[in-house]
């Protein structure tokens, strides 16, 4: 299976994400490659804050072979993406990169999460001209595409972004527990606290 589409509001989506990632990334773990999760976006725009929110929720998940870049404190965005990618390549030998970012789409797809075995192109909606990122990509449709997409991102509902971020982060968390083992109570606390604030 090359892709997964799921609804962030569905109770089954967390397990769908967990199982898809487990299938795709278990061979990567067995080959001893480091998995690097890059959460792209900025906390200065509601619609573009999906990546930093996921990174914030998963910051306690970091293990020896699972590294996370990008959160609310230190977001990965257009101005530092290239240098971040250079840093990752210099610090990790042949890492497997999972890229996470917000996206705009059709009205009926708002709230959906897409996981694909291909890179994503951050900033495409705003014509940023950034490099492609990732061996595998996870995108959340936060709002509708169309004219004035910068304004659309600025006026996106935080509830929608938080719902998508919560589902993605929990799916990744449960994948890590299933594949790498070792329950992390501090991460449970972080996820529960953020979920209860929605």
TrEMBL record:
The keyword Hydrolase applies. SUPFAM superfamilies: HybD-like. GO terms for molecular function: peptidase activity. It comes from the Bacteria. Keywords: Hydrolase, Protease. GO terms for biological process: proteolysis. NCBIfam families: spore_YyaC. This is Spore protease YyaC. It comes from Clostridium paridis. The gene is yyaC.
